[in-house]
Amino acid sequence: MERARGALAVGITLVACGGGRPASTPAHHPHEHEHEGHAGASTPPGHHHRFEDAASWSKVFDDPARDAWQKPAVVVAALSLAPGMAVADVGAGTGYFEPHLSRAVGKDGTVLAVDIEPDMVRHLGERAQREGLGNVQPRLAKPDDPGLADGSVDRILVVDTWHHVDDRVAYARRLARALRPKGFVAIVDFTKTSPEGPPPAMRLAPEEVERELTAAGLRARTRAIDLPYQYLVVGERAE
User: Fold this and answer.
1) Distance CA 61, CA 21 (A)
2) How many angstroms separate the CA atoms of 158 and 121, rounded?
3) What is the tens place of the pLDDT at every residue in 54-69?
4) How far apart are CA 67 and CA 23, in angstroms?
């Protein structure tokens, strides 16, 4: 989410992360921040933005300069993906994380690129075809439901999107049901002091994310990760 990536839902993009949106935005949208594909997220009154023009937002979300602080290889490594796995990028947006996730799960794996914006989903499909990402499947989701079948994925990535979800515990329960045994949800979001990201009032402390995932029945903990502006909270499926 923030929803700079696309709009979201959970590219879950459950990524949606996979996405995750960068904090800077086009000049004609001075008040919008990294909305990258939101997994089902909405912002407080007066802060909701749509990300319908995927071509324009791609210039922001896929800016190579983002790599220096987003470190996609570091994020994907934290997922411990293996060939043949299924991963959902909830809030996938324009597909920033998709090439990395696609390589990690291999030709026999699956990447579900989830977003709530139809134009982002269209863009995801065109990008996957253009870049030869045959294992990437774009999915249109609802703001309150990532649309993932029960027991269908090994990992769910939600980048810069979680703070936009309205009822996060209910949403986390849906994500938990989608996990296979030994699966987990990875929430990557901005720290309170990050120079990138949404307004400070919209940010969540990792402890709050832990409580929400725990309330949804997941075993949650904050993991160390080499990101300058973001933290990682993992919620593992309880066996």
Assistant:
1) 6
2) 16
3) 555 554 565 688 999 9
4) 12
pTM of the full structure: 0.81
CA dihedral 148, 100, 185, 91 (to 10 degrees): -60
Round to whole Å and give the CA distance between 137 and 152: 13
CA distance 52 to 206: 30
Residues with pLDDT less than 50, the chain: 1-49, 59
Q: What is the pLDDT of residue 239?
A: 74
